[in-house]
## 1
Amino acid sequence: MKSAVPTVQAAALVLLCLTACRRDVPEEPASGAHTTPFILDLPANFPVPIIPASNPLTEEGIALGRRLYYDTLLSRNGPFEGFACASCHHQATSFTTPTAGTNVLAHVNLAWGTNFLWNGKVCGTLEDVMRFEVEEFFQVDMAELNAHPDYPQLFQEAFGIDNITSDHVVKALAQWFRRMVSSNSRLDRHLRGELLLTPEEMNGAMIFLSEVGDCFHCHPLPLMTDNGFHNIGLASTFGGFDVGRFAITGAPMDMGAFKTPTLRNIALTAPYMHDGRFQTLEELVEFYNSGVQHSASLDPLMTKPGPSLTLGLTPQDKANLVSFLHTLTDEAFLTDPALGSPF
Ligand code: HEC
Ligand code: HEC
């Protein structure tokens, strides 16, 4: 769970980032490609994103990553032949898609991510998880890319290289993921004083952000995730994929613990939880209200004072909490042509 390792890593990355993100001196790729630095447009209340010095954001790198993301060429000759990343990650639903089995995780604000995939199989930077996606998941065929009519030129422009390796595919995709920022939901605009939430939404916010609902400890503003792992009590015994982080660490306290997903655009990403067990936010809120199950590794935050695991929310509280979750929908993100397919 909240072991010291990811925290120390994150601190190191932030330090790295303080230098890497200095906006006036973008680092040129070694071979001297003439790239155009790209500056992320972020609201003041957002933390500094994690950008390694070895992979600064450039217009060329992001455009290339975007094209790769939408291109089925990436899966050619691999186990997912015929798919693009975007085949399972659709913009209109925050880059998810409803499927049976393991729930597709959204691609939103992962520039701040330190733990990836439901059980945290990959920890580190976006480059680390892209290496997994490129080399293990899609098993990208570099010969296909190198023989392509357009890609050698595009990689040359982005990285100043003549031979495309998986390193460059990883870097381009990581840059693209850092571009996928959602920061214009109604909640964001409320926090910036641009609009007022309704009284119902405000009541939902109070429940979410106070000990009443106690959601904010794991889903804090503004990213709506603590980047940690928790067993929230979906079950009392665990097997198969449901063992969660335990499969990676073998630590008893990680039994049934999963990555806290962001709640951004949550109204559009049904079904919910790692196994997609809840179809609606109403069902999900009822789980938090009255369905939490006890086990040795249950996160202490899920146990309430006294023997009870229930929150005791009224029907109105529950409805308002759902209304609040809807304020996290960011239409600008979901419809931004710059995030859509370049084809
Ligand atoms: C066949 C459907 C499918 C395709 C195609 C697909 N993904 Fe995913 N993606 C998923 C699923 C399902 C998960 C959650 C899996 C898990 O956590 O075990 C996921 C999770 C992720 C995550 C983790 C997000 C997080 O919050 O931790 C990243 C990053 C990701 N995908 C990137 C990609 C990239 C890059 C590609 C293309 C190279 C891609 N995906 C193609 C289904 C897909
Ligand atoms: C102890 C930490 C913790 C607390 C407290 C918590 N959550 Fe979560 N939340 C998680 C984790 C971890 C998951 C993923 C669990 C899984 O899939 O097994 C999750 C999943 C969710 C999801 C589904 C996300 C998705 O993409 O499927 C929603 C919605 C949600 N939480 C809302 C809330 C609300 C509302 C509250 C307060 C009533 C709350 N959470 C309290 C950790 C927490």
## 2
Amino acid sequence: MKVIKRLRVPVGVVFGVIATVLVGCASFSSQPKYTAEQVMEQGFKGDDSLIKKVTQGKGTQDDFKRLSELVNELAKNKPTKGDMASWKEKTSALSAAAKNLVQGTPGALDSLKAASNCKACHSVHKPS
Ligand code: HEC
């Protein structure tokens, strides 16, 4: 009896830890926070978009971080059109460039300009 009583607390703790880990895993799963459409609307669409501001060299550190978050979410999406290999290549180039920009790596802005080519991606992956 004594042994069982003693065990109760540790068992509760263990379950608590397992539950925390499971919840943590769920939020780290491949489920993107934003759809490709949302990423485009929040970061790419229009003349005053975040991507324009940043590629014109007017971005702040906060802009870089926000852009990095958006393109990371874009990369977690599956393309509704075009093949996965091409999507992976394009979105990971975007993610890498945005990350480098956040970290202040030289040349990051140029790689971002190349990776954010609207037409190059849309012609393959944007459903008409
Ligand atoms: C790496 C790929 C990629 C790049 C780069 C990209 N887009 Fe997109 N864009 C997409 C995809 C995919 C869609 C279709 C989303 C959907 O409807 O599912 C889209 C859709 C859009 C839409 C329509 C969103 C809506 O409301 O339905 C706009 C506007 C847009 N992009 C603007 C831009 C602009 C401007 C640029 C360049 C500065 C750009 N995109 C660069 C992938 C990209």
## 3
Amino acid sequence: MNRSGLLHIASLLTITLTAASGHAMPADLYFSMAVTENSHNHAGSNLLFLKFQEKADPSVIAPSVVISPRVNGNSIKMDGRLDDWDQRWFTTLESRVMNNYPLSEFYDATAVPIQIASAYDQEHIYFAVRFEDANHDASLQRRQWIFDGTQWHNAPHTAVRPEAPAGHVINKDATLAGREDEDQVFFMFPMVDQEGNFRDGGMGCGGYCHPNLVASGDPKTHLIGDETAGMHTSLPGDVADLWHWTSTRSNLGNTLKDGHIVHGEGIFNGRMADDGQSPDLDNDLKAQNKDLPSQPAFISVKDFQAGNYAIPGFKTEILRQDQAMPIPAGMNFAPGVQLPYSIVRPATGSRSDVMVMANYDPGTFMWTLEFKRALNTGDAKDRAFIPGPSPLPPTLPAVLPGNPERGAKLFADLCKSCHGEQGEGKFENGAWIAPPNQRASGSLIAKTTSINRIERLRTIAHEMAPPKRLMSFVPISQQDAEDIASWLQRQSTR
Ligand code: HEC
């Protein structure tokens, strides 16, 4: 027998051995992925399909299909570099803006192309993600403390860089609180999905997106967003696994904030932490006791001993819990001293299930991230990637980034009568008649206009805050919703 014949038998043997030793392929699934520039405004795809493969076949890659071929254990080195990934395995997402703060005190998201790949071996699943940072900054300063000589404040937010993709957004001059300075990457994997969001043509994470702006007060006196951040599954029992990587809070611990999302109503935030210790601790007296003022609680032992806090403008970059000490009573800080808001510590338990190695390149403004988790953690709050029945791959075309000209016409015909010329809403006698929707995402519009939501809300009328009136069913497609959103997001909120 010639050499290639031998090789052929050898590869057949490998397959048989693999099957015999019980390492069958995990079931395919629908999932969601989003990238957030500075905390609130995210872009990505609410519905993707993950196709496991015994042998890599990149020909099935589509705007909504990500492949996960089998690799040999240890062939992927966790180092935040993607040179050991086959470049043909990457899917480029038709990324869309998915923010949901309709009067947006935050500046808008920009849909940068996001590339994603996956792989699995006998024990682990891997993901690789890379994207150009929308504001060309690594955003490592969420809520950074700064001392003005008398008091502590949150350092100003990194301004929008004119040359960055976010440089053209319409509300780029909005004043932002420094607490938003953080990039994030979200994955959502369904576990119980009776509502059918994770299926061909379903809404994916869009079915759970932040609802109910009606609960917000007068936009002139109240920041829209404060009371509206609720995010939860729509039916009791539905639950999804949530991977939440954060550039400030979990990055230094090489992990992410592993959690899950459960059912709730109205403004209830159904995002729950998995069991175990979080990789971050807030450096804030108020976080430890809400009767205390909001100010830093800890400093670095090393910088304290070196007398650095007497130097104007001195900055402690990273604060680790085992190298931190409480601020001594009566201590004086020089003006301009900066302290981190997040204290780094080891995550434990199921909170630390996912290992993440991330790398920001200030030359190319690219983030690259590698994720690794056990296929089955054994925790009921984690999605297990195990063999089982697979849903069929998507047949409907992926929802594409919106067409604003088409959206303008749809809005004028179908929405303007209630939501106003530019989606500014109608606020009369202290209540919204129809809320503002200028920064609503396509996902939120699709969810709001869907008959499912109307039917569900009718049965739980108590979820409705004043004005206790429901939007009527507007029969539009998800692509229509995306087109409307892309026009709305170009309208000024001032
Ligand atoms: C007949 C009046 C009316 C029309 C027409 C209408 N809306 Fe609404 N809309 C409302 C009311 C009332 C609410 C608040 C109650 C609710 O959420 O159902 C609302 C809420 C919303 C919300 C916020 C949902 C939330 O959870 O906070 C969005 C987004 C929205 N509408 C988008 C649209 C779009 C896009 C159109 C056109 C395709 C449209 N609406 C047409 C009256 C209307």
## 4
Amino acid sequence: MKVLKSGSQLLFALLLATAISGCSKVSTPGSNAYVPTAADATATATLADLQSGRTLFINNCDRCHNLPVPENYTPAQWRTILPNMTNRAGLSASEITLLTKYVTRGK
Ligand code: HEC
């Protein structure tokens, strides 16, 4: 009984820590996709663009392989890789624009 209680306290502490840090990794296991903040917005990518792009990325890019880590590729590399992948994922032109903004952090 005591073990069970401290176990649930640990779980609660973990959930609380997750809620405080705003980390969304819990809801998307295995995802290292960064969560954009206002600081990531650029002249060409609003925070809303980046957030939509993240959702598209998470929902479409782990079907055939694990979700890639955006920061593992430079914006130039993404521009080479993405046409092939967005084609396979069956995304529309506007979805591709948002997803590209997300993985390149608007660069
Ligand atoms: C229909 C299957 C499929 C979907 C959907 C898919 N991929 Fe891929 N992806 C692959 C395959 C297969 C490879 C291995 C390399 C190749 O065949 O081009 C790959 C490789 C990659 C690589 C590594 C490329 C490299 O040169 O190191 C990245 C990054 C990547 N995909 C990103 C994405 C992103 C982002 C999406 C979502 C838009 C996506 N993939 C959706 C099949 C897919």
